TrEMBL record:
Residues 126-205 form the Acyl-CoA oxidase/dehydrogenase middle domain. It comes from the Bacteria. Coiled coil: none annotated. The keyword Oxidoreductase applies. This is Acyl-CoA dehydrogenase family protein. Belongs to the acyl-CoA dehydrogenase family.
Length: 400
């Protein structure tokens, strides 16, 4: 286990107490949209409480610097103890990843205009990258991107389609990725900051999905002649994929952190149920079939936590950590799925009702196994690196 700084422990303790005492009581709050996601009114009320507690955006310090990734892990795990915790504390996706990206790549103007309202929790954001399969666009393979951009005077003009864009409905800040058709950027990707809503960015459909913890759902989008001033490009033309990696490795690890917190809480609920519920003359936990599931959950929680901290420590060295974050995403998401499933099973019929958050955690973790790259894509990427390393080793042997 890596060492946790005192400042992270202090912030994390405050976050945990806040979530357990102030946010958990809102889990049965009826202010939800048609899909079951928290309404903007509910999110605003939760964030007011976080501000009053001095805990808004706890992973970003007053001077604008971020906690280290190890420190962030300690805090974000505790923010996830309720599905509403990350929303209240402004540690949720996609905002947390977008703030990280802007903080590391954005210039002073972009930070003032787009990052500042995100840090204060006054605005939500969306990251426009994934494209529809029926269009042949980018999904897990971003090189397939079909949304294009070209220069027109002092502006760039963007056209294309996007899909499964989390939080687009109701967002005020957008980060849009498009492939440049300009010769000097050699067809590379570009990344733009835009104010939302914008008439050129049309929400076509917000489907119902298995998860519903994130306001705004996962929208399908048409971008029709979106004009963006050149000074709202993030970094340089053609370097969008590089900036995407700056965002994606930490962001997929942050998902692991938050959902580990949720599974820790689900384990607490299932354990309490098993200890208090009796069947066949003794508490459920005394039946090996039940007790062993909870024991395995405890093992998986410990292993997931170790994986998260290991990957966070790699990122803190300045390494992009793409290999490590891929391994963490696979290992943690699969472990959390086992934990959530066991919790439902231990609780029986109660586990599939909305009487506790266990049922929601199960649904959210099932979705988590897909977004930010499904398990199979990460394993395929890792297998390619194994093959490349083998070839390199063979070539070195031949050279000697």
């Amino acid at each position: 286990m890596v060492a946790i700084s005192q400042r992270a422990q202090d912030i994390g303790s405050g976050v945990e107490a806040f979530v357990r005492e102030k946010i958990v009581p809102y889990e049965q709050d009826p202010r939800r949209d048609h899909h079951g996601a928290p309404t903007e009114e509910l999110v605003a009320e939760l964030r007011d409480k976080a501000r009053a507690a001095g805990l808004m955006t706890p992973h970003i310090l007053a001077d604008g610097s971020h906690l280290t990734q190890v420190e962030t892990a300690y805090v974000l795990i505790r923010s996830g103890l309720s599905p509403l915790g990350p929303l209240a504390l402004n540690t949720c996706a996609p905002d947390e990843g977008n703030m990280y990206l802007l903080g590391h790549v954005g210039n002073d103007m972009l930070k003032r205009r787009f990052l500042d309202p995100l840090k204060t929790g006054e605005a939500r954001s969306a990251f426009f990258m994934t494209e529809p399969a029926d269009w042949g666009g980018a999904g897990s393979d971003p090189s397939m991107m079909k949304t294009t951009c070209h220069k027109d005077g002092d502006d760039w003009v963007v056209n294309g389609r996007k899909v499964l864009i989390t939080g687009a409905q109701g967002a005020r800040v957008g980060i849009v990725m498009a492939r440049s058709t300009e010769a000097d950027s050699e067809g590379g990707a570009c990344m733009f900051l835009v104010d939302l809503p914008d008439e050129a960015i049309r929400i076509d459909h917000v489907p119902n999905t298995i998860d519903n913890s994130m306001p705004g759902g996962h929208a399908s989008i048409t971008i029709d002649n979106l004009r963006v001033p050149a000074n709202q490009m993030l970094g340089k033309a053609g370097e969008g994929f590089k900036y995407a990696q700056v965002r994606l490795s930490p962001a997929r690890l942050s998902h692991c952190m938050r959902w580990l917190g949720a599974c820790i809480r689900a384990q607490e609920i299932a354990s309490a149920y098993a200890c208090e519920r009796h069947a066949f003359g003794k508490p459920l936990v005394d039946h090996e079939g039940v007790g062993f599931m909870l024991a395995q959950n405890q093992i998986d929680i410990c292993q997931a936590e170790l994986m998260i901290y290991w990957c966070a420590a790699v990122l803190d060295t300045g390494d992009l950590g793409t290999t490590q974050s891929s391994m963490a995403k696979v290992a943690v998401s699969e472990a959390l799925m086992r934990i959530a499933d066991n919790c439902v099973q231990v609780m029986g019929g109660t586990g599939v009702t909305d009487q506790t958050i266990v049922e929601q955690v199960f649904r959210e973790i099932r979705a988590f196994r897909i977004y930010d790259g499904p398990t199979e894509v990460h394993k395929w990427s890792l297998a390619k690196k194994i093959k490349k390393a083998h070839r390199s080793a063979q070539e070195q042997k031949l050279a000697h």
